Amino acid sequence: MFTNLFATRGLSLDRLKTLIEVAEAGSIAAAAVGDAARQSLYSRQLKELEEFFGVELTVRKGRVLSLTKEGWELARIARENLNQLNDFKERNNDKPYRFSIGAGDSFHAWLVAPMLAEMQRGNMKYLFELKSCRNSEVAGKLLNMDIDFGIVRESGLTEGLQHRYICDMDYVLFVSRKKYEKLKVPQGEKALPYLLETLPLATLGDTTSFYRQLEKQCREYNILFQNHCETQSFPIAERLLKTGAYTAILPSVAARSLGADYVAISHPILKKLSRRIMLAWNPRLLRIRPMAKHIIDLSWGDLV
Predict the structure, then answer these.
(1) Which of 192, 221, 225, 251 has a 20 to 30 A CA-CA distance from 126?
(2) For 204, phi and psi rounded to 5 degrees?
(3) φ and ψ at 106, to 5 degrees?
(4) How far apart are CA 70 and CA 79, in angstroms?
(5) pLDDT value for 303
(6) What count of other Cβ atoms lies within 10 Å of the Cβ of residue 216?
(7) How many whole angstroms from its chain centre is CA 221?
(8) Distance between CA 133 and CA 150 in Å, rounded?
(9) What pLDDT is attached to residue 148?
(10) Rounded to whole angstroms, how far apart are CA atoms 227 and 215?
């Protein structure tokens, strides 16, 4: 059995591990993290895999050496098989299964973290690796099996993935209760325009689709909109809010951690920014790691 596979030298778990690391990092240089000796080792190991399989696994793009289509395919196969071997070892050594979840910082903070806490309280002793990913990156990482699960906006789903609905992510303007009570804030739909014109705002920057949609909605409602601090993630905007110097537009679920010290202001322009949030996975995951179904079956939306 497997006579042809072992007829020549060059295949090893260590070399396959290197291939996976290069796939996850995007290039040999990135995987080696500036270590010239490691970069040389990785290059040699991938060359040995190329000779073993008789196919080019890497291609040079400028000064960067990255994987070919065949390289990505082999990395996926290797990752799946090494995951199975690792699960077998962990199970027989009474250790927790490891799963990775890719999502933006906001989803990790307000969706994933509460669910992991519930799992710990329920004695579901899995080990999780949380990977920070842009919404546009999640689908590709799932298809390549770089991550086990992804938390993604519905617009970020793609063919070949399975998913289940988690919740609708709504947005509100938060302001400290002390500031709110000091100001003569008008009620109803006039509250948000007044606060945007009166107090400095922190929210996502103008390179994001969220900002562009917010700006568009403000124009349609003739609301003066100026972002005084552009952030890369909502959790950073939340921290700026807590300094007392800013208001912040955040997902409404942030109210759980902010508590009664902050007032949440809603408005039609913010309601139009609501997004459907999904838990997504590659269907191959369940064939390779059936225990992953326990994660899918959790009541993700109940904590929102």
Answers:
(1) 251
(2) -60, 150
(3) -65, -45
(4) 14
(5) 63
(6) 14
(7) 32
(8) 9
(9) 94
(10) 10
- CA–CA gap between residue 267 and residue 245 (Å, rounded): 22
Q: In what order do the strands lie in the sheet with 229-231?
A: 229-231, 201-204, 247-251, 171-176, 262-265
pLDDT-derived band at 119, boundaries 50, 70, 90:
confident
d(CA 235, CA 250): 8
pLDDT at 232 over 80: yes
Q: Can you tell me whether residue 303 is helix, strand or coil?
A: helix
Report the distance separating Cα 224 and Cα 22, nearest Å.
47
User: What is the β-pairing status of strands 201-204 and 247-251?
Assistant: parallel
For 234-257, what is the mean pLDDT?
A: 94
- Of the candidates 143, 148, 132, 149, the one whose C-alpha atom is nearest the C-alpha of residue 87 is 148
Distance in angstroms (rounded) separating the CA atoms of residues 45 and 25:
16
Q: Which tens digit of pLDDT belongs to each residue from 167-204?
A: 999 999 999 999 999 998 999 999 999 999 999 999 99
Cβ atoms of 132 and 149 within 8 Å: the answer is no
Provide the pLDDT confidence category of residue 261 given band limits of 50, 70 and 90.
Answer: very high
| Sole residue written with tokens 């291939």 | 19
Burial letters 186-214, b for 16+ CB under 10 A, else e: eeeeebbbbbbeebebbbbeeebebbeeb
Alpha carbons 166 and 236: distance in angstroms, whole number:
23
Give CA–CA dist 42/160, Å, rounded. Answer: 31
Residue 229's contacts (CB-CB under 8 Å, 6 or more residues apart) are 200, 201, 202, 237, 240, 246
Is the overall model pTM greater than 0.70, yes or no? yes
Kindly list the distances between the CA atom of residue 96 and the CA atoms of 17, 74, 109, 288, in Å, as whole numbers in the listed order.
21, 27, 23, 17
Residue 35, pLDDT above cutoff 90: no
Q: What angle do CA 254, 258, 263 make, to 5 degrees?
A: 90
